Amino acid sequence: xxxSALERGTEWLAQGGLRPTRQRLSLASLLVxxxxxxxxxxxxxxxxxxxxxxxxxxxxxxNTLRAFCAAGLMNEVVVDGSKSYFDTxxxxxxxxxxxxxxxxxDAPKDQLEISGLPDAPEGTEIxxxxxxxxxxxx
Length: 138
Fold this sequence. Notes:
Blueprint: H1 3-15, H2 22-32, E1 39-40, H3 42-51, H4 58-70, E2 75-80, E3 83-87, E4 95-98, E5 103-106, E6 132-135
Parallel strand pairs: 4-6
Antiparallel strand pairs: 1-3, 2-3, 4-5
Protein name: Ferric uptake regulation protein
Keywords: Cytoplasm, DNA-binding, Iron, Metal-binding, Repressor, Transcription, Transcription regulation, Zinc
Organism: Pseudotabrizicola algicola
């Protein structure tokens, strides 16, 4: 891993108030080291980590992704009950889910209009709205 990727990873972890352990730094560098936002599953990040020569268990990848989300560094996007993606872009934006490739990509934010939401039940507040538009080739 190059120095700029490690620097970006270290800065990113600091933004979330997370201690830069070896495993966190390795995964953070893979996620944000090139400055490009990405959508990953735990499995795809695990494979990327193995390709880079870093030995991290799948359980550690899951736990680390959850820690990144809890720190506000990533958002988890649940596509269906059994498939979660983790997004390094944390502003509100919609997604396309490509059913034929199981890929999640950003959808144009400026083309989405939400005219209203139902009232939240008493004693609660809406924390986030996820919009996932499922696509299949015609």
